[in-house]
Amino acid sequence: MKIAIIGAGASGLFLANMLYGKYDFTIFNNGKIGRKILASGNGRCNIANNNLDVSKYHNNQLVNKLLVNKDKVFDEFKRLKIYLKEDSEGRLYPISESSLSILNILSKNVIDNIVDIKVTKIDKKNGKYIINNMYSGYDKVIVGVGSISSVVDKDIYKFLDGINVKFNDFKPSLVGFKVKNKIKAISGVRSKCNVSLFNGNKLVHSEDGEVIFKDDGISGICVMNLSSYYAHLNNINKPYIKIDLLNGNKYDNLESVINPKLLEYISKNNINPNDFRLDIIDTYGFENSQVSKGGIDINSLNDDLSIKSDPNMYFMGEVIDVDGICGGYNLFFAFLSAVTVFEGLK
Ligand SMILES: Cc1cc2nc3c(=O)[nH]c(=O)nc-3n(C[C@H](O)[C@H](O)[C@H](O)COP(=O)(O)OP(=O)(O)OC[C@H]3O[C@@H](n4cnc5c(N)ncnc54)[C@H](O)[C@@H]3O)c2cc1C
User: Fold this and answer.
1) pTM higher than 0.85 for the full model?
2) Which candidate, 147, 178, 272, 302, has a CA 20 to 30 Å from the CA of 69?
């Protein structure tokens, strides 16, 4: 059996390692391999999480089914000799704390199978796939091309023309928010607090964590997590972030509680420290987002991630309309979906 994998990112490389020595395969990749693996976890590669469950994902009906293969991902880490360590929040990293070490491990055996080609066309003739009118004879095509978050060339889905799948529009997720309020005076301040996203005065989601104030907006892990709920809103109606700088507590003196710059700002502007509201203009966009909501609709897929219209074509990773919050869940989904495809091939 001859297999074409499109994309040498997290899902493509992980799958390739499972195929290595067992199947004849070629990986078609546009440009630098594993670029997002390298960028992940601030270069430390937050690869998975010990608190893994479906609640960490949007569109989690599919994740729920795929989680039967969860242990197989960890078995594959062991087989590849990827040794992990856990931080206080269950996030798993390679012991080296280096994304490069993960990319080196995932690429070393399969590097010779990678060709640097942007796939723009996939045809099928006599039951075999032809890539870009040039590379032919493939029995299966497995697509792991990721999303348009943090990529320069966003015109990467041309090959989907003529393929019968539903593709949901992308929206940036795991990204900071631009706000209307003038907050330049507190740019650079970090504050551990409770943040809540409201849409039309309705609470959407709330989290504790560190907010990072910027010239024109806010960021930080808890804020990025709110953005993933924002990406899933159907009607956006005067959205705002409510920040409780006191985490639900009351103090008779705030000097040792709130960062002095921030305290000066809220005092000057008569802001209630339990209810500091920031009106959302927008997110910081795809360029700054870690993942995208959207992609191949999960209803177009069979349980083995082949498409209903063609059981020899599969999708895996972020190109599927599944996205997780921060904490290693998105890389894990890329690996989990790769394992699911592999199990289906057996
Ligand atoms: C800055 C940043 C930090 C992140 N940190 C984390 C983290 O700590 N933990 C976590 O879980 N997730 C993190 N993520 C998200 C995670 O990296 C992605 O969800 C994951 O890499 C998706 O894997 P994938 O295989 O679906 O796609 P990718 O890893 O994006 O790989 C897709 C590959 O396909 C190639 N390609 C695209 N189109 C074509 C085409 N037409 N023809 C040929 N090749 C093509 C691309 O060049 C790329 O190599 C982060 C993302 C970013 C941007």
Assistant:
1) yes
2) 147
